[in-house]
Amino acid sequence: MRIPREKEIAETPVSAYKQLTKQEKRLLDYLKKHRSINPIMSWQALGIYRLSDVVFKLRNRGFDIDTERKTVLNKWKEKTNFAEYKLQMVS
To answer: What is the pTM assigned to this prediction?
Structure first.
């Protein structure tokens, strides 16, 4: 599968961009600007509850999105795991 280059993503034809769902568009625009996102940020900033599903769909469309697993302590001092997603821009 060919990975879109940064210039190609920025210059995605309007017709191809229109084929993306609203959530895919919001997530792609957010990742282009901020480079990474996690499920909490996704819910708060974009209203996307199932971030992993939208990432899965964008990957199937050819976008190179990496997953980094993170472990942090929650407010009860318990370990909790989550994924952080990053859009890889190929120059």
So the answer is: 0.77
